[in-house]
């Protein structure tokens, strides 16, 4: 079993390249950085991301009907982010303690990560395109911005994301790396010329689960060489560069149109989307720069200091990229007035439901008193606001 410089393995020993025989660098110096980042910071991102995106989904499900293409796109972005942060804790736990789950879970979780990555980025590009049509091509917007058309586009985006994630579903596996202590013990044991039986006593102190990983594993070196370039290149091109170019073109034309019209009231309609795009650039540009550097130098015999620095940079910038999952709902809450009002109604309803569960009799009496008071006020000609409820 051959090992590569990034922990990815091939299962065919018949073909060997230089990058296969070079001993991997010792990454123990990076363990403290990865532990802090992956365990603590990622946990905070998971909590905030789940809370914020669930609020967005609940808002669209019970309080705000998706009436425009932008609403449909933002709802799908929230779903993609929620699925991503929901899978992240399982990935973090298994990476820190050894992959305890099976191969199917390895493929599904890593595949879900890839699908949600592509779909989220492409949907942001769709949002900017929708804003471009609504403002720059206003005359055509009524024909092009139908709900049916938006749902077809979302289905196409999710299908494309699934197609681009096929290598992850196919080549991710659960296995013991050859360069681990346990892997070396098994691989270096000479079964044919052994004069003594397999010594289990020497492996008592080893736990196989501590060495099992979930990573790319290729059938041969040729496939490994191709995929180790193709997968990150596709991620950078489709998952970052393409959405960035689309957003740049659309929002540049939107700004020009707004300046010509001298009507800055229309600018408020795109403030939320524009803020989301800015967050997208700030979050994802550093990671893609680090990923580009790592891809370009994939098969170079770099010093271990450079390899260590690259891995630390990828870990830190990847965490910054994860932030977009929990920052998007915050932007909706602080910038979007309607979202802020809907969130307030959600909090009020959850508070009322909690009081009813904790003290049903008192809640029923208070509700009756409030109903009588409301009837009396209506008889006196007073107007009251309708209470919020879980209705469309």
From TrEMBL:
Transmembrane intervals: 39-63, 72-93, 113-136, 148-172, 237-260, 272-293, 320-337
Q: What GO cellular-component annotations does this UniProt entry give? A: external side of plasma membrane
Top-level taxon of origin = Eukaryota
Q: Which PROSITE patterns match?
A: G_PROTEIN_RECEP_F1_1, G_PROTEIN_RECEP_F1_2
Q: Where in the cell is it found?
A: Membrane
Domain G-protein coupled receptors family 1 profile spans what residues? 52-332
- Which keywords does UniProt give here? G-protein coupled receptor, Membrane, Receptor, Transducer, Transmembrane, Transmembrane helix
State if Cell membrane is listed as a keyword: no
Q: Name one Pfam family in it.
A: 7tm_1
GO BP of this protein = calcium-mediated signaling; cell chemotaxis; immune response; positive regulation of cytosolic calcium ion concentration
Q: From the UniProt record, which GO molecular function terms apply?
A: C-C chemokine binding; C-C chemokine receptor activity
Q: Which PANTHER family match?
A: C-C CHEMOKINE RECEPTOR TYPE 6, CELL ADHESION MOLECULE
| Protein name from the UniProt record | C-C chemokine receptor type 6-like
